[in-house]
Automatic annotation (TrEMBL):
Self-association and partners: Dimer of heterotrimers each composed of an alpha, a beta and a gamma chain. Alpha and beta are catalytic chains; gamma chains are involved in binding the enzyme complex to the cytoplasmic membrane.
GO molecular function, a single term: nitrate reductase (quinone) activity
The protein's name: nitrate reductase (quinone)
Catalytic activity, reaction form: nitrate + a quinol = a quinone + nitrite + H2O
Organism this protein belongs to: Aliidongia dinghuensis
Length: 234
């Protein structure tokens, strides 16, 4: 039973989640373009939004970039560059910890802002709140995994996770076997990460596709009440 569950979660589920992620994003853009937005609440608690949003986005973009490079770079390549497995893991822990803390600060402010203000909560959908809490849980797991990694600085767990990721993206068999005996916190981190990919097309996260390069420096959405200018003139 354990072997079946491991294969289902780490051999099959990633492909289900990534397929829904890609196909769902295309279908939503094609059929529901008017919902292809983040859903602005700029006029409410602007200071919290400014600090929280910038801290979160800078942190999360750095974390995603680090995961992409760290997991998908072939072991032989960084060894050829003179970077040992131990040094790579230590660098990942330090850089991930710094940007993870920045992201955690920003996300905490965003969660507080959305849940503590009755006006913002009233304009938030269930998916808005759910995806924010899932991201919060995922970030907490990621930061917690740093303390687990500190107990095996030889990089053995990191190599298993990288082998799993590289086998998944290259459609090689046996990917789930690499993570069969890794620490449970890494397994939870993977499953929750895949779940976020699964829910991505059905949430406000789709707006990331609109401007992936200029995302951090983009202006906020401007929301004006219809007829406001006329009311002011009167």
């Amino acid at each position: 039973m354990a072997a079946f569950l491991n294969q289902a979660l780490f051999g099959l589920y990633p492909y289900v989640a990534l397929t829904v992620f890609l196909v769902g994003s295309v279908v939503r853009f094609d059929r529901e373009q008017y919902t292809w937005r983040s859903g602005s609440s700029q006029l409410l608690r602007r200071k919290l939004l400014f600090v929280g949003s910038n801290c979160f986005h800078i942190g999360v973009l750095a974390i995603l970039g680090g995961h992409f490079v760290g997991l998908l770079t072939p072991h032989e390549l960084y060894l050829a560059m003179g970077l040992s497995v131990e040094a790579k893991q230590l660098m990942a822990m330090i850089v991930g910890g710094v940007f993870g803390a920045l992201c955690f600060l920003g996300l905490t402010l965003l969660v507080y802002r959305r849940l503590a203000d009755p006006r913002i909560r009233a304009t938030s959908s269930r998916m808005d709140i759910a995806i924010l809490l899932l991201l919060y849980a995922q970030l907490t797991l990621g930061l917690s995994s740093i303390f687990v990694s500190a107990h095996h600085l030889d990089g053995s767990e990191m190599l298993k996770l990288a082998d799993w990721a590289q086998h998944i993206v290259t459609f090689q068999a046996g990917a789930a076997d690499f993570v069969a005996d890794v620490h449970p916190i890494f397994k939870l981190h993977i499953v929750l990460g895949m779940t976020i990919f699964l829910l991505f097309p059905f949430s406000r996260l789709v707006h990331i596709w609109s401007a992936p390069l200029g995302y951090v420096t983009r202006p906020y959405q401007l929301v004006r009440r219809r007829g406001g200018a006329a009311a002011r003139r009167s």
